[in-house]
Amino acid sequence: MDENQQNIAEESESKRRLPLSLYGLSPRDIQEALDLDRQYQGNQIWEWLVKGATNFEQMSNLSKAERERLSKLMPSFMSSAIISTQTDETGATKLAIKLFDGQVVECVLLKDKDGRGTACLSCQVGCAMGCTFCRTGTMGLVRNLAAEEIIEQFIHLRSLGDDITHIVFMGMGEPMANLGPVVKSIRYFHDPAGLDIGLRRITISTCGVAPGILKLAEQKLGVRLAVSLVTADNDQRDLLMPANKAWPLEELRKALIRYQRIIGKRFTFEYCMIHGINTDEASAKKLAKYIRDMDVMVNLIPWNPASELPWETPTMQEINEFTTMLDHMRIPYTRRFSRGRGINGACGQLAVPLNNVGTDNDTPAMA
Predict the structure, then answer these.
(1) Helical spans, DSSP H, in 113-268
(2) How far is CA 194 from each of CA 45, 201, 320, 351, rounded to the nearest angstrom?
(3) Residue 198 near residue 190, CB atoms below 8 Å
(4) Which is more confidently placed, 112 or 71?
(5) What is the mean pLDDT of residues 26-38?
(6) Cα 79 off chain centre by
(7) Which candidate in 81, 223, 322, 345 could, as Cys together with 340 as Cys, close a disulfide (CB 3.0–4.6 Å)?
């Protein structure tokens, strides 16, 4: 083998070992992936990533020669890119993120009245759960996201220049069906030496995957749990949320009680109010019975419109009458104002056109 062939072979081998992204890697992993001479260089690059550097040239504490080598070796250290940005009158911003394989996910930055930001992140391309009131459910499941693809959504949202203090896994996908990468990304977000997002400022939402809830309890992370309940009637929930056939209300309740015994913290029931479906007195009574002996807050969310779905948002009178019944039954609840509706960025509104990749609409299964 001549010298030219040797160089080509070495360059090919180097590229073969390169990760798609440097996010989610430890300093030691970065050192090994980039063939760095010194361990401290891996720490330096990791720190620049946390700061939001977009290229190696910005990493001023690396030598010029090293910056040039790394820029040639890995022109981009992210596996995804922003392809569209939309902002509505509430200040909510939705990003469409193109992944390395051409698939697209959406993530949203929500702002409160004080300007603090919440990153709403996706964990899958599409979703297999098939909730009939959710646009993402119409996509089926294309694939799970890797931890770095979840982390990069946060980095892209932070590049908008806003202070992000909270993270919610309420975007596209079912977190409990991709729990490993979700937990890995949470540990990255929480690292006190890095992004330092408090665990109590991170929420995982689920449609009620009981085995995933139990696995999350074993992790003892201390994050917040939100469960999409929608109705406490099994037959009705079977129709609205097919996952209920795999993990019916009784099994879900057992998992939640065990979760609460292990974690010892209040969780939230997300209750999507749908006109004429789950806002009557019978629904309120079943809800009151179901939450008995659980330390839970019911989060009332009016259904967010989606033109291709058959449901309607309840009227204000309907909502007021329902909350009056909840008051009489002493059910603890909050009423949530949906931000991001104007850009189809509110709960249940995220969906993107699928590329030519097969989807999986079979019965939900644990990853």
Answers:
(1) 147-158, 179-190, 210-219, 234-240, 243-246, 249-263
(2) 12, 15, 44, 31
(3) yes
(4) 71
(5) 94
(6) 17
(7) 345
Mark whether 347 is an active-site residue: yes
Domains of the chain, each with CATH number or no CATH:
3-73 (1.10.150), 81-343 (3.20.20.70)
> What confidence score (pLDDT) does residue 302 get?
92
Both tokens of residue 214? 């139990």
Query: Which listed residue (120, 123, 134, 347) is catalytic?
Result: 347
pLDDT on residue 91? 84
365 or 189, higher pLDDT = 189
The CA distance from 189 to 56, in Å, is 22
Q: CA-based diameter of the chain, in Å?
A: 85
Phi, psi of 299 (to 5 degrees): -100, 110
Q: Are 266 and 296 in contact (CB under 8 A)?
A: yes
Count H helices and E strands in the chain, helices first.
12, 12
Separation of alpha carbons 154 and 109, rounded Å: 9
Answer yes or no: is pLDDT of 5 > 50.
no
Give the pairing type, strands 224-228 and 267-273: parallel
Catalytic residue among 106, 149, 174, 270: 106
How many angstroms separate the first and last alpha carbons of the chain? 46
d(CA 142, CA 155): 23
* Cα–Cα distance, 57 to 220 (Å, whole number): 40
Which has the closest alpha carbon to 108: 49, 189, 164, 177?
A: 164
Identify the bridge partners of residue 106 per DSSP, sorted by sequence position: 96
Question: In which element (H, E) is residue 85 found?
Answer: strand 81-87
Question: The whole model's pTM is what?
Answer: 0.88
- Rounded CA-CA distance 149/155 in Å is 10
